[in-house]
Amino acid sequence: MDRRTYLRGVGAGVAVLAGCASRESERTDAESTANRSTSAGTSGPATASGVHRDYETTTVRALTPDRESLGEVTAAIADTPELRYRGLSETETLPVDRGMLFVFDAVADRSFVMRRMDFGIDIVYADGEKTITAIRHAPVPAPEEDGSDQRYPGRGQYVLEVAYGWTTDRGVEAGDRLAFEL
After folding, report:
1. CA geometry: angle 64, 91, 161, nearest 5 deg
2. pLDDT value for 141
3. What parts of the sequence cross the membrane (predicted)?
């Protein structure tokens, strides 16, 4: 059984059990709502402890050339070979207010894959000045695919991965800029 099928089954079982369980208190219900991470393509905030809690994070804003804000995410920073290789592969969902920022030493041609991904993403390439050079929309791999053959090329020193459709929904395009501190 592949990972996605297993996770769907577990999720369905949890949903059934949650529907049968009684609420312990209003506080427990509120905490549950506050701590729930919403999946890519849905709205709602993630908590600091929810997604990528073992990573350092930074706020990444997408800006027009005139510095008008188009949107922002809290991004986990992948700045070592190990963190960059792992990427979002071990992530079950990606809330719309979260992302991952891949940091490299220099601008270069790069290619990202969808290895073991359970959700689609937008891949934003930016040069050394943080100007967006390319955006790739990478849908979730089909159930019989592991995503290794799905390649999304671009040129940049920084690569931001966000929820699928995030850039389209906010009008982010090549020539816009990313703003963040490391």
Report:
1. 20
2. 86
3. none
